[in-house]
Design a protein that fits this description.
heterodimer; A: Four Helix Bundle (Hemerythrin (Met), subunit A); Alpha-Beta Plaits; six-stranded mixed beta sheet; five-stranded mixed beta sheet; globular; B: alpha+beta; 3 helices; 16% helix
Chain lengths: 677, 166
C-alpha cells in the first residue's frame, strides 16, 4: 500500500515536472518568436529578451537535472551557456544561431512529450548530443565593444557594475547613445515601488542599465540611489520626463580622450567602499517560502492569544487589594505589548503582499501569443498593476483571469470583417483594471466585443433545462446563469477556450478565495466581468457570534452592520423572511437553521448581522454577539474543508476551535435562492 | 521589498529528490499502536501516529457526515476528529475517562484525529506474523495478527480517512 502511494506521488511529481517544464519552454518559444520578429537575425537582439531566455534555460537545466533527465539537462546547460555568452555580448546571434535555438527548444519539447507519455526522454539522447555538439561548435565573433575608459562615470559606479550591466553599458556606448546618471532619494518604505516605477519610466525612453544604492540620504528612513541609464534624451528633458528635479539628472558624455574617463565628478564626494557595501546589502531582497510566512503568521496569532491570557490575569489581580498596584502596572505593559503586536502583525502581512504585476505580465504574454496564433487584432490595456494582494491569492488568480481573457479574446471580440461592418475600430480592446477598495481589491476584465444578449442566455438556459420556460429572469439573473455548470453560449470548440465550459470553474475559484464575481454586458458594445477579492486570507478581524451553545467567527470585512431585531420586525412574504433595513428589503437567514443547530426561541430578540459583498446583502440572525477578535484562519483538511458556508477554522483565546464563516458563500446562496424563488 | 517563494520548479525538484531518497524501505518488524474500540483491540501503524491527546471539547461542524465529530485546535492547528467506533460499525457510546484522540498524519501532510476508547501500548510485530484478514473483512482492516490470545486488526489510516470523505 505504502509503495503504491509513493509511486502515485512520484507520478504526480513527474506530471508536475512536465507541466512546469512545458511552461518554461512555452516562455522560451514566445521569446524566440519575439527575437525573430525583432529581426534579430541581422540586428541586435533586444537585451531583455535574451536575458529572459537565459534565465529560462537556467531554470530548465536545474529542473530536469533534479528529476534525473540527464539529456534534457545537458541540452539546457549548453543553451544556458550560449545564451549567457550572447547576453554578455561575447557572441552574436545571427540567423544560424536563431535556428539553432529554435531547434533546441523543439527538441526539448519533443523530449518532454516522451516523459509525459511515460517513455524515457533519453531515447532522444543521440539527437540531443548532436545538437549539443553543434551548439558548442557555434562560435560567432564577439560584438565589438565600446570603450569603458572613455566615459565620464565615477569609478565607484563602474566598479560596481555586474558583467551583464557592463556589457549593456559597452553596447550603448558603441551605439553612441547618451548616458545619464540619475541621483534620487527614496522612502525606504516604498522603495521597491518607486524603483520599479522609475525603471518603467526610463524604459519608455531608453534603458536602465544599473541601480546602485549610495550614501548620503537626508534621513534614516530614506535612501539614495544612483541610476545609470542610456537614453537619447538630454538630461533636462529626461529629468522632466521622470518628474525629477533638473539637477538630479546629469549627462555622462563619452569623452574624446580615453584618459578623462577616471575623473571624479565634482558634485559628490567619492563614497567610501565600506559604505557602498553595507548600503548595497540593504537593498537586496530575500526570497522566502510562503509557508515560512504562514508559520510567522501563526506565531503572531499565538502571541496575541498569550497576550489575551496576560490581560485576563491583570484583571484578576486588579480585583484583589494586595495586587491591584501590580495589576495596573501589568495592564500597562500588556497594552504596550498589544501595540507592538499589532505592528508586528501589520509587518508580516505587508511582507505577504505582492503586486498584481506578475499576473498581468503573464496575461500580456498570453494575449501576445493568441494574437500570433489566431491572427486577431486585439490590444491589451492594463491598469493598476501595482495593486497589492496576498501572494497566495495572487497565485490562485492566474487561472481565472487567464480564462476570462481567453474568453474575451476568442468569443467576445468579433472577427475583423464583422467589426468593420459594425463600424467598430479594427483593433479590439481588452482592458484589465485593478484597484483597492477598502479591504477588497476589485479586478475587472472589460472587452469591446459583441457583448451578451440576456435574451439569448435565457433561451439557452431554457434549452439546457437550467430554468423553467416561464421563468421571468432579470438581466442580472440572466447573466448569473453564465456561471452555472454546463452552460455555454457558443457551441463551437476552439483550442483557445475549449468548449466554453469553465465560467463555473472561474466562479468556484473566486469564491474559494472568499471573492465574488459579477457580470455586466451590453449587447453589441462589450462585457465587463468584475472580481472582488479580499486583500488577504491570512488574518482577519472577526466578530464572534453565538447560536445555541455554539460559536462562530464572521470576518469583519464581510459585515456591514449589526442590529438587534425583535421577532415582529422580521416580515414574511411568499414564504420568505425579509428584514426591512431603512427601506431596503434584505433576505433573512437564521444561522441555526442554516447549519441545522436546532431552532432558537422564536419569542426572543435576536441579532441581525448584515453581511454584504458587492451589491448582494443578507441579514444573518444569531442569538448573541460575543465581541471582536483577530482570527488567523487555518486551513482544515478532510470533509470539513468542503463544507459550504465555512471558510476555515481558527483558535480562540481559550484554545478552543471556532469555525469561520464563509461570507461570500452565504451571501451567494441566499441571493441565488431568492432568484430561484 | 520583494519577497517571494522559490520558483515552483525548485520546490518540485526538492520534493522529487526527497521522494527518491525515501524510497523502498520495507521494515521487517512493524511497530503498532494498540488501541481499544468497542471492546476489541485494533492496531495503527506507529509511523503514522503524530501524537495522542486527551479528549477535549470538540467544535461540531455542520453539514458533514456523522463520522466527523468536529474539530479541535492543537496548538493552533485545526484538526478534524473522526469517530472510530462509527467507522468500524460499532454502537455509539459516550466516551469514557480513558478515551483518547489519536492524531495521525496523512501522506499529503494533512492531519486527522481518531477517537478511540483507550490507548493500550506499542507492539512490535514481525511482518511475517501479519495475515490477510479472512473472508469479508470490515472496512479499513488490512491485516490480522494474533497477540495475547486475541486477534488484533491492523487498520489502514488512509482508508479510515477516506470513509470520512464520503
Amino acid at each position: 500500500m505504502a509503495s503504491r502511494s509513493r509511486k502515485t506521488a512520484r507520478d504526480k511529481l513527474q506530471r508536475e515536472f512536465v507541466s512546469e517544464a512545458e511552461e518554461i519552454l512555452e516562455r522560451m518559444r514566445d521569446d524566440l518568436s519575439a527575437l525573430a520578429e525583432a529581426g534579430a537575425g541581422k540586428g541586435e537582439p533586444p537585451p531583455e529578451t535574451v536575458n529572459r531566455l537565459f534565465r529560462s534555460a537556467h531554470s530548465l537545466k536545474g529542473l530536469s537535472g533534479m528529476f534525473g533527465h540527464a539529456a534534457l539537462s545537458e541540452l539546457a546547460h549548453h543553451l544556458e551557456d550560449v545564451l549567457d555568452r550572447l547576453r554578455l555580448g561575447r557572441t552574436t546571434l545571427g540567423r544560424d544561431g536563431l535556428g539553432l535555438l529554435d531547434e533546441s527548444v523543439s527538441l526539448a519539447a519533443a523530449g518532454l512529450e516522451k516523459v509525459g507519455r511515460g517513455e524515457v526522454a533519453d531515447a532522444l539522447a543521440e539527437r540531443i548530443a548532436d545538437l549539443v555538439g553543434r551548439i558548442a561548435g557555434w562560435d560567432a565573433p564577439a560584438r565589438a565593444s565600446g570603450e569603458l575608459a572613455s566615459v565620464e562615470l565615477p569609478e565607484s559606479l563602474l566598479r560596481a557594475l555586474t558583467e551583464y550591466e557592463e556589457s549593456r553599458l559597452r553596447d550603448n556606448l558603441r551605439h553612441r547613445r547618451g548616458l545619464a546618471v540619475i541621483e534620487v532619494e527614496l522612502e525606504l518604505a516604498s522603495l521597491e515601488e518607486s524603483l520599479s516605477e522609475l525603471g518603467r519610466a526610463i524604459g519608455e525612453v531608453g534603458e536602465l542599465i544599473s541601480t546602485l544604492p549610495s550614501p548620503g540620504a537626508a534621513s534614516e528612513s530614506r535612501i539614495r540611489f544612483t541610476l545609470l541609464a542610456a537614453s537619447p534624451l538630454a538630461a533636462p528633458e529626461l529629468a522632466a520626463r521622470l518628474e525629477l528635479e533638473p539637477g538630479a539628472v546629469r549627462s555622462a558624455h563619452a569623452a574624446p580622450g580615453a584618459a578623462h574617463g577616471r575623473e571624479t565628478p565634482a558634485r559628490s564626494a567619492e563614497p567610501a567602499e565600506v559604505d557602498t557595501v553595507t548600503l548595497k546589502s540593504l537593498s537586496e531582497t530575500v526570497r522566502v517560502d510562503i509557508r515560512k510566512l504562514d508559520e510567522l503568521m501563526n506565531l503572531v496569532g499565538d502571541l496575541a492569544q498569550e497576550r489575551a491570557a496576560l490581560r485576563a490575569l491583570a484583571v484578576r489581580l486588579a480585583a484583589e487589594r494586595a495586587t491591584s498596584r501590580a495589576a495596573t502596572e501589568l495592564e500597562k505593559i500588556s497594552r504596550g505589548l498589544d501595540r507592538k503586536l499589532q505592528e508586528l502583525q501589520a509587518g508580516v502581512l505587508d511582507v505577504r503582499m505582492v503586486p498584481l504585476r506578475q499576473v498581468f505580465d503573464k496575461l500580456a504574454r498570453v494575449v501576445r501569443r493568441l494574437r500570433l496564433d489566431l491572427g486577431k487584432d486585439v490590444r491589451l490595456e492594463l491598469q493598476g498593476a501595482e495593486t497589492e494582494l496576498d501572494k497566495l491569492i495572487v497565485e490562485q488568480l492566474v487561472d481565472p483571469l487567464m480564462h476570462l481573457v481567453r474568453n474575451a479574446f476568442d468569443h467576445a471580440i468579433e472577427p475583423a470583417a464583422e467589426r468593420a461592418r459594425l463600424g467598430k475600430p479594427a483593433e479590439g480592446v481588452i482592458r484589465i483594471e485593478a484597484s483597492q477598495r477598502g479591504n477588497d481589491v476589485a479586478i475587472s476584465v472589460r472587452d469591446d466585443g459583441r457583448g451578451i444578449d440576456p435574451e439569448q442566455v435565457r433561451a439557452r438556459a431554457i434549452a439546457a433545462g437550467l430554468v423553467a420556460e416561464d421563468a421571468g429572469l432579470s438581466r442580472k439573473e440572466a447573466f448569473g446563469l453564465l456561471f452555472q455548470p454546463g452552460f455555454s453560449t457558443r457551441s463551437e470548440v476552439t483550442a483557445t477556450s475549449g468548449r466554453g465550459v469553465g465560467l463555473d470553474v472561474v466562479r468556484a475559484n473566486v469564491s474559494a478565495l472568499g471573492g465574488l464575481i459579477d457580470v455586466e454586458s451590453i449587447a453589441g458594445a462589450g462585457t465587463c466581468v468584475t472580481l472582488t477579492l479580499p486583500i488577504t486570507l491570512a488574518i482577519v478581524q472577526a466578530l464572534l457570534v453565538g447560536v445555541g451553545s455554539q460559536r462562530f467567527a464572521i470576518p469583519l470585512g464581510g459585515i456591514r452592520e449589526t442590529l438587534l431585531v425583535s421577532p415582529n420586525e422580521i416580515e414574511r412574504s411568499a414564504g420568505r423572511e425579509l428584514l426591512n433595513l431603512r427601506g431596503e428589503a434584505l433576505p433573512v437567514r437564521r444561522l441555526a437553521e442554516e447549519f441545522a443547530l436546532g431552532a432558537s426561541d422564536p419569542t426572543q430578540r435576536q441579532y441581525a448581522v448584515v453581511l454584504g459583498i458587492g451589491e448582494a446583502k443578507l441579514a444573518l440572525l444569531v442569538d448573541r454577539l460575543e465581541g471582536q477578535q483577530d482570527a488567523v484562519i487555518k486551513p482544515v483538511s478532510g470533509p470539513v474543508a468542503s463544507v459550504r458556508g465555512v471558510a476555515g477554522a481558527s483558535e480562540l483565546g481559550d484554545r478552543s476551535a471556532v469555525l469561520v464563516l464563509d461570507v461570500s458563500a452565504l451571501v451567494e446562496d441566499a441571493t441565488r435562492r431568492r432568484e430561484a424563488a | 521589498m520583494t519577497v517571494g517563494s522559490p520558483p515552483r520548479w525548485e520546490r518540485l525538484a526538492r520534493a522529487a529528490a526527497a521522494a527518491r531518497e525515501g524510497r523502498e524501505e520495507t521494515p521487517l518488524v512493524r511497530e503498532l499502536l494498540r488501541v481499544e474500540v468497542g471492546g476489541a483491540p485494533y492496531a495503527l501503524p506507529i509511523e503514522r501516529v503524530r501524537e495522542i491527546v486527551r479528549l477535549r471539547p470538540l467544535t461540531p461542524v455542520p453539514r458533514v457526515p456523522p463520522l466527523v465529530l468536529g474539530v479541535i485546535s492543537l496548538r493552533g492547528q485545526i484538526v478534524q476528529v473522526l469517530d472510530l467506533r462509527q467507522a468500524l460499525g460499532e454502537a455509539h457510546a459516550t466516551p469514557g475517562r480513558r478515551a483518547r484522540i489519536v492524531v495521525l498524519h496523512g501522506e499529503g501532510g494533512e492531519v486527522a484525529g481518531l477517537l478511540v476508547d483507550a490507548v493500550r501500548d506499542v507492539l512490535r510485530v514481525p511482518e511475517a506474523d501479519l495475515r490477510e484478514p479472512p473472508g469479508d473483512p470490515a472496512p479499513c482492516v488490512t491485516a490480522l495478527c494474533s497477540k495475547d490470545g486475541r486477534f488484533l486488526s491492523l487498520l489502514d489510516p488512509d482508508q479510515v480517512l477516506e470513509l470520512a470523505a464520503r
